[in-house]
Design goal:
This protein has 273 residues and is of the alpha/beta class. It is 41% helix and 17% strand. It has a single domain, classed as Rossmann fold (3-Layer(aba) Sandwich). A 5-stranded parallel sheet has the order 4-8-3-9-10, with helices on both faces. Strands 5-6-7 form a 3-stranded antiparallel sheet, with helices on one face. Helix 1 (67-78) crosses helix 9 (258-272) and helix 2 crosses helix 4 (143-153). 2'-deoxycytidine-5'-monophosphate is lined by residues 63, 85-86, 89-90, 149-150, 153, 180-182, 235-236. Residues 63, 85-86, 89-90, 149-150, 153, 180-182, 235-236 line the site of 2'-deoxycytidine-5'-monophosphate.
């Protein structure tokens, strides 16, 4: 029987803004001969096993392309860790705001990044972040931190430090899905499977609006379009190198549901494994 994405119980995650996908009842986990585990409705056996060997999977792309939701969904389907590298830049920005560090002073930002103890707990559907023993996982999602993070992410010496830390974390994880802007191009150039997710500006904005509405906030579509346009202009497009033929699988998610994107990526991973 062909695999229909709607038969699968979706992984629990923060509201995503993606178009809702119907699903049926409860399921149970099936351990496959490959060692992978899948959630499947009680009435069915898994339609096909997810085959993969230990591997690094990278997902890069612009803001609002659905990277985080897709990375979490993929990591959960493959039962491997999810490394959210944006959270690390956000954690440094949060610490800089708390300590009133001058965002125009690159040396001060780099000194701060060197001095803090940044700990990540990479689960299947989350990355929790601690700075100097304090859990900042929720605090780093504020609008103030989002704006400040773009300035931190432009600081090359901070990038160098965080790239090293990401590689160190990667070595401790084994198989994982790494999500960011430079994962396939800079941080893990030897990753077995590399994805670039794209989506039209309008669709990215529509997702953000749905996401914010689900979280109880109201926002103008035009405002979100402008915000994304501005972020596109300053975002270092570090994944550009991956757009050359054969470097990565580029997936335009504009007309796809979250479940369809995750299914597509799983198929690529199976083919690679
Ligand atoms: O994916 P995100 O919104 O959590 O990322 C927060 C910021 O960090 C955003 O400005 C992009 C930047 N970033 C980056 O430059 N490189 C990464 N690997 C991850 C995020």
């Amino acid at each position: 029987m062909p695999h229909r994405s709607t038969d699968w119980k979706p992984v629990r995650h923060r509201s995503t803004g993606w178009k809702p996908v119907p699903h049926k009842g409860e399921g149970r986990f099936h351990r496959l001969e490959t060692g992978a585990t899948l959630m499947c409705p009680d009435s069915q056996t898994p339609p096909h096993p997810v085959r993969f060997t230990a591997m690094i999977i990278t997902i890069d792309g612009p803001a609002g392309s659905g990277k985080s939701s897709v990375a979490r969904g993929l990591a959960a389907r493959l039962q491997i860790a999810y490394l959210d590298t944006g959270a690390m830049y956000r954690a440094v920005a949060h610490a800089a705001l708390q300590r009133a560090v001058d965002f125009d002073d690159e040396d001060a930002l780099a000194a701060l990044a060197r001095s803090i103890e940044l700990e990540l707990d990479c689960g299947l559907t989350h990355t929790r972040v601690q700075v100097d023993g304090q859990d900042v996982s929720d605090a780093i999602r504020s609008l103030a931190v989002s704006s400040a993070t773009a300035r931190v992410a432009r600081c090359q010496s901070v990038r160098d430090l965080l790239v090293e830390r990401q590689r160190e974390i990667g070595r401790s994880l084994g198989s994982f899905v790494a999500e960011g802007r430079d994962q396939g191009s800079v941080v893990f150039p030897n990753a077995e499977v590399k994805f670039v997710l794209e989506a039209s500006l309008d669709e990215r904005a529509a997702r953000r609006v749905r996401e914010m509405q689900t979280d109880g906030g109201g926002v103008e579509f035009a405002e979100v379009v402008e915000n994304l346009r501005a972020r596109d202009a300053v975002d270092a497009k570090q994944w550009d190198a991956l757009m050359a033929p054969g470097r990565a699988s580029v997936v335009d998610t504009s007309d796809m549901t979250l479940a369809e994107v995750v299914d597509t990526l799983v198929e690529h991973v199976q083919a690679a494994g």
